[in-house]
Amino acid sequence: MAGPGLAGSTMTPRHARAVARTAYLWGWPLVNIHNRRVFLERLLAPGLLSGIVPAGPPGTLAMLRDYIRPEERVVACPDRDVVHGFGILDGQLEPVVVQVPEFGDRFWVYQAVDQRTDSFVRLGKMYGTVPGFYLLAHESWGGAVPAGIAGVFRYDTRSGVVIPRVFLDDTASDRAAIEPLVDRICMYPLSEFDGTVQVVDWSALPLFDGGSATEGQGERQWVNPEKYFSVLGEVLDEVPPLAGEETLYERFRSILAAAERDPDIAETLRQTALDTDAVVGELFEFRNIGIPVTGNWTTQHNGAAFGADYLSRTAMGKADIFVNAPNETACYYQDLDDAGDRLHGVRTYTVHFPAGELPPVRGFWSLTVYNKQHFFHSNELDRYALGSKNQDLTYGDDGSLTLTVGGAGPSEPEKLANWLPAPGDEFSLYLRAYWPAAAALDGSWQPPAVIPQR
User: Which PANTHER family is this protein grouped with (predicted)?
Assistant: First the structure.
């Protein structure tokens, strides 16, 4: 609740506008996750939205058995190197159990983030996680942990998101090999736990109307600025303040209380949300966010661990909301060539990795092309990323690797395997280094420049 000095204070539109602008930039990702949970509450069982996007009601998840299709519009910057799953948590429900099968040498990681988009689990190959059953529980839950649970992870917000990712080679044989593993990945309420491994045939999921899950050019609008301040009060109740945020919460509640009393203040909040949304839109561009590195690339060092870095949290929420923690994935973003010009698909570019200078990883790496909305550009090759998953890349005699991006494509058949199609418009590149080695984390390795061909 608002403190006594703020609850009934006189409020001018100018003051309300200043606080509202901060509230919008602060809370955009939190409202985003809230609205995702509300959207999925209508589902009765795990399934596929619009036939391609895995989802389920809170407390469950759904898995794919292959790469995500390019029509997906639920999450920007989808990854075409892994098999995905997706699930929503609701801290007002009972805890959930997630199953971890024996993956052997295959790379895998389960991401679980709270409503602030901060990670609260350590589940993955980089953590040495053993197969078994793991409990995800709200910190308010005081029940007994049953025998057979290998670990417990707590979160303190109402909503959260769980995304399993499992590496898949782009081969028919690996698609067959991964199916029995994926069918043992699931999430279910603790009351259904009996100590035995549940197996789900994820190829037989029901299909649900996904609305805008596959429609339009950009990401489904999870945050509507027109309705932002009508939802923010709920979000403040769902997400407890971090240490030092108490006064911030009081200020936000004060403008919400003033808006209830004064239609002019309510209109000020609505208009400020619309105006500030344009600023958030600027944060969508990779070149406007993160930490600059060589060749006009940018990176970030606090993905899924934003804490009080609200600007980075919202910037990544807009551009790449479910980015992994840096020790799970080192991410490099690119909108520009080495001369600072915007990448455009009518031109041809090369990305050259000298011998011994591929992205340093213990997992895998990839280079992905996204259109200017950060989604895939459908093409005849059905190709959107190249990297460790591709067994047919052509290397130079000296061991170097040159990837070609955009343009009409190479005329020589032997060079086609190294070509990434791009849309005939502005586009972006995204270099992922899953389970990065130290050189990718300390900056001693940086990605090569993107060179336009004259």
Answer: BLL3101 PROTEIN (PTHR36509)
- CATH number for the domain including 186? 2.60.40.1610
pLDDT of 104-151, one tens digit each?
A: 999 999 999 999 999 999 999 999 999 999 999 999 999 999 999 999
| 268 and 128 in a common domain | no
- Short-list 206, 207, 202, 150, CA closest to 178: 202
Both 256 and 396 in one domain: the answer is no
∠ CA(142), CA(145), CA(148), 5° rounding? 170
Asked whether the beta carbons of 211 and 51 are under 8 A apart, the reply is: no
Are 114 and 49 contained in the same domain?
A: yes
| DSSP H/E element including 427 | strand 427-436
Q: Which pTM does this prediction carry?
A: 0.96
| 368-403 per-position pLDDT tens digit | 999 999 999 999 999 999 999 999 999 999 999 999
Same domain (yes/no): 391, 425: yes
Q: Which residues contact 204 (CB under 8 A, 6 or more apart)?
A: none
Range of the domain at 21: 13-35+222-275
Query: Do 59 and 198 reside in the same domain of the chain?
Result: yes
Q: Give the residue from 168, 196, 213 where a domain finishes.
A: 213
Query: Is the Cβ–Cβ distance between 121 and 100 less than 8 Å?
Result: no
CA distances from 46 to 36, 43, 57, 128, 210 (A): 15, 7, 7, 29, 13
When divided into structural domains, the chain yields a total of 3
Q: How far apart (Å, rounded) are the C-alpha atoms in residues 266 and 258?
A: 8
Rounded CA gap, 194 and 253, in Å?
44
Co-location of 290 and 246 in the same domain: no
Pairing of strands 82-90, 159-167: antiparallel
Q: How many residues does the chain have?
A: 454
Answer yes or no: do 235 and 339 share one domain.
no
CATH number at residue 301: 2.60.120.600
3-class SS letters over 295-321: HHCEECCCCCCCCCCHHHHHHHHHHHC
| Spatial CA neighbour of 24 closest among 219, 224, 260, 308 | 224
